[in-house]
Design brief:
By secondary structure, this protein is mainly α. 68% of the residues lie in helices and 0% in strands. The protein is globular and about 30 Å long.
């Protein structure tokens, strides 16, 4: 997966997460972010930073049900959410040594 595609999936996952009334407060509490922080990140030119995008995917990946629901909403395979997380965390490239 390419970096741009990983960021696109993460940004879509953030949009999805913001619409989840039951999950968003848990995400905010877990990260220490506020709703104002998310609004500012979403309104920034160039979109949210990679740290926030990775935090979103890390949160989504914590529970199978959340991964499944998010992937279904984004119309992607669950594996693509995992691949996006790996790419944004720097683990997306295989290095043979």
């Amino acid at each position: 997966m390419q970096q741009d595609r990983a960021e696109e999936i993460a940004a879509q996952a953030l949009d999805w997460l913001c619409a989840q009334e039951d999950l968003l407060p848990v995400f905010l509490a877990a990260t220490g972010a506020t709703a104002q922080d998310l609004r500012a990140a979403l309104g920034r030119p160039g979109g949210p930073d990679k740290v926030l995008l990775l935090a979103v995917l890390d949160f989504v990946m914590m529970q199978d049900r959340t991964v499944i629901d998010c992937a279904r909403a984004l119309d992607v395979a669950c594996e693509q959410v995992a691949q996006a997380q790996a790419m944004l965390s720097g683990q997306g490239q295989m290095h043979w040594t």
